[in-house]
Every structure is written in structure tokens, then in C-alpha cells.
């Protein structure tokens, strides 16, 4: 009778085969089924062998078997049987863990008739975007009125075949992650994947359609460098694929073709806009409000919350309503009869991609108003669609005005904010000159940051800072 694995401590899995004791130092990684890399400790009568290897690599496994046979004075056939049994048990354990992870995934909520009716009635109300923005505020997102509605609509685009993407930019502590997280909470939990750390190949091991129409939130782009390339491929091509080769227990080489399909909506946060140019070109750049007025709004809310004067149950109810609103939105094609008349402002950075983003954002607003639009049918193709209105275009222009201006600005957002603050300060103080230290002290900005911004503002980009 085969003894089961002892997995009480997942960082030190143990197993006994007659007088042999096996221990996996550091446990067993669940992802990456094409390999089984472990740090193994084998004990026999107070003697031990420790080795790091891939148990699917026959050459490495044979060497370990021979080494143990010499150390323990045991037959290689006996040890090979022990190792083969161990590998089978580890395979079963790994598959069980993967199945448990699948079951632990957020279940799809089934709306009651009352919940569905409430959500649909909300989507039929006039001034829908204004009402939505008010609810976003009541859910606990303080200030950032323009940014929070824009981000909400970008996240809504995950349901479409051409989703939009967003990158939140701001200095450290400005609330980038908080804004992204709070607006992300207004999406159905089963359609959101939050990432704090992800290895380069991890995306390839999702199910073929597991990421389809999902919202992927990256807490810090600086910590997700390895995964940015496959994410960009999912954004642009809506598909990533990878072929891996591994050896089975018989030593035969086999290939597995991994394919993961999109489309996906991606959002991330960073303080370094220029570092992620390839990503920012594909995304809406959301520059956070770092004004004193916004600081005061947030601190006032914090005081009210600490005093117990925030109705948290009302916040939860509003979040649930907006999640249900998202759940009742259904796929429908959008056509913009005014598209040929729309022009971008001259000088917009990357005009081809920005134009596509602009038109797609208008379509998202139309898509969000689907309960207020007449469904039409193309007599040639039979396709059912709804049409964009002039009001949708006006709303998009208001929400995107700053985004389009930022897109046409040769300066990164943080540097532009610094430059405008510097001009305003010098005008107020009636000064026509300054030093780095003076501005650092008077604007409460780190000296190194002042020097970096001033260097970028120099026409020749030569460091002549004082």
C-alpha cells in the first residue's frame, strides 16, 4: 500500500517509502506543468542526500538515483521504483491543487429578478453618465470626478471586442493604486484579475479563454516588468501563444502548444511615464489630481470615516448596484454615423493610435447607453447594432479633453505639472530667476526631482543646474 504525501506543511512536503524518507524543501510549484523542479532531501538510516533537480529530466534523475544507491548501499532498481512512485504522487497532488484553485475562483453571480430590474432601470435614466459619476463618488471614490468616470468607462470596455486600457500616473503617495482599486471594485469580482507579482510565463498557463473579456489590474508596473511584453501582445493581437518542450517519464521529448485568448482590458499604475512608452501608447493616461484641494477632500473623508460618520453599508449597496449594472450590459455592435466628420486637434502625439482610442471611447459611451438606444438591423449582413448620438460625442470630448492635450504634449505628465506649478509660483512671487534648492524648499518637492524636471525642460538637455 502506497503511503500518501504529507502536505500539512506546503513548504516541506514529506513522503515515506519503506525505510526511505523524502522531503521537498520549499514545497512544489503548482504552475508550469511541463517541469517538476524541486529541492529534494532523501534520508536512509541517518544518512541524507540533498539535491536540486527537475524530476522530469531523466539524466538528472538517473544521476540522483545512482548517487543515493552509492551512499545508502541500495539497489538502483529499488530506488528508481521509489522515485517513480514519488513522481506519480506529486503529479496527482499538483493536479488536485489546480482543481482546487479553479473551484476557488470567484463564482459568477446570478442576479435576482429585482436586482436585474433595478440595474436595467438605472441604465434607462436620463443624464446617465452624471448619475453614474455621482454613484462612483458615493461608493467611496473621493474627488477625481473626471478621472474616475473616464476610468469606469475604460473598464466597461472590457466587454467589447476592442477594449481600451489605462495607466494611472502620479507621484508616490498620490493615490494611483487607490483610485484604480476603488473603481475596479465597481466591476463584477468574477471579471477582475488583480496582479501584484507575476512571472514572465505565468500568463501562458491560464486557460485558453480564462482571460477573455477580463479586467487585469496591475498594482505597480515597476514590479511587473517581465510580464509587460505578453500583456502588450494580448492588448494588440488579443492572443498569446507559446510552445514548450518537455520530457515525459519515458524520456521522450513532447511538445505542448499553449494558447491564451483575449481581448482583455489592462490598467496599471506608475510614477514613470516615459519608461513604459510602449504601454502608454496603447493606453489612456490618467494623470491624478495632486492639488491641495484634492488633498483636503481626501483628508476630510478620512476624518469622517475615523469619526464613524461614513455610511459603509450605503457604500456597499452602491458598489453592488454598479456591479449589477455591469452584469446586465450585453455585447452589441456600435456604429458611429458621425465618425467621418471627427478630427483630432493638430499636433496630437501618435495620431493614428490616438484617433483609434478616441473613436473607441465614443463607442464605449454609446455601448453604456445601450438601454436607451434603438436596436437596428443591417439588412445586408443581419447584424444588430446601435448608433452613436451627438450627445455621446460631446460627453467623450469633455472626458477626453485633458487626455488628448496630454497626448500632444512633448513633456511627461509629472514634468508638465511641475512646469505649470513653477510658472505660477514665479509669477506670484514676481521672480524671474530661481535655484534648484529654492524651488525644492518653496514647492516642497525633493531636490532630486526638481533637478530631473529642470534637466528635461532645458532645450539642449544639458545639465546646467545650480
Q: What's the end-to-end separation, in Å? A: 79 Å
Rg from Cα: 28 Å
Number of domains: 4
CATH class descriptor of the largest domain: Alpha Beta
Shape: globular
| SSE ordering | EEEEHHHHHEHEEHEEEHEHHEHEEHHHH
- Could you say what the CATH topology of the largest domain is called? Rossmann fold
Count every helix, treating DSSP H or I runs of 4 or more residues as helices.
15
Strand order of the largest sheet: 6-7-10-5-11
Average of the residue pLDDT scores: 85
Q: Based on helices, strands and strand pairing, what is the structural class? A: alpha/beta
CATH homology group of the largest domain: P-loop containing nucleotide triphosphate hydrolases
Helix content: 40-55%
Classify the beta-strand content into a percent band.
15-25%
